[in-house]
Amino acid sequence: MHKILVSACLLGEPVRYNGADKFCDHEFLQQWTRDGRIVPVCPEIAGGLGVPRLPAEIANGTGGASVLAGDGHVLDSDGRDVSIHFIDGARHALELARMNDVRIAVLKEGSPSCGSSYTYDGTFTSARVPHAGVTAAILQQHGIRVFSETQVAEADALLKELEAL
């Protein structure tokens, strides 16, 4: 049985920077939970950040891959560099994925950790850039397909393909 790495906030855990969740009541997520497929993760908590915490964005809109390469930085809204927490959290998520032979992840879109198709540009003005977050980037670099909470049906289709092989 294939397992799926899922952002803890999508599962209703209050781990977001503001202490909230982003519960996703998608039927496939609920089925995966019943089936015991879910591997929950909050990379920011795993990386040592608390709840609540200041919001953070990837500076200069460079994306998670640049942070992993040491060229980019994640800054909180006070300008403090919190990159190491995001990198440590991404490594933790990758290790969880490896331990559970995960090939699919469903992560919270827009997050500087979990965003798969966009993050914010580092200006804290809600301006989007088409770059993955730090965790999404490391998972993608290691062959794990990352989907957002709006792509759960696509993730389930891939799951069914993998299980048919």
Which terms would index this structure?
single chain; 165 residues; alpha/beta; four-stranded parallel β-sheet; two-stranded antiparallel ribbon; 6 helices
Describe what this molecule looks like in 3D.
This protein has one domain. The chain is built from 6 helices and 8 strands; from the N terminus they run E-H-E-H-E-H-E-H-E-E-E-H-E-H. The protein has helices spanning 27-35, 43-46, 64-68, 83-99, 134-141, 152-164; strands at 4-7, 38-41, 56-58, 74-76, 104-107, 119-120, 128-129, 145-148. A 4-stranded parallel β-sheet has the order 2-1-5-8, sandwiched between helices. Strands 3-4 form a two-stranded antiparallel ribbon. The longest helix is centred in the middle third of the chain and has 17 residues, at 83-99. The mean pLDDT is 98.
Secondary structure: elements and pairs:
Layout: E1 4-7, H1 27-35, E2 38-41, H2 43-46, E3 56-58, H3 64-68, E4 74-76, H4 83-99, E5 104-107, E6 119-120, E7 128-129, H5 134-141, E8 145-148, H6 152-164
Parallel strand pairs: 1-2, 1-5, 5-8
Antiparallel strand pairs: 3-4, 6-7
* Poorly predicted regions: none
Q: How is the main sheet built?
A: 4 strands, parallel
In total, the number of strands is: 8
Q: How would you describe the shape?
A: globular
Quote the distance from N terminus to C terminus.
12 Å
Work out the helicity level.
Answer: 25-40%
Order of helices and strands: EHEHEHEHEEEHEH
Structural class: alpha/beta
Spatial extent as radius of gyration: 15 Å
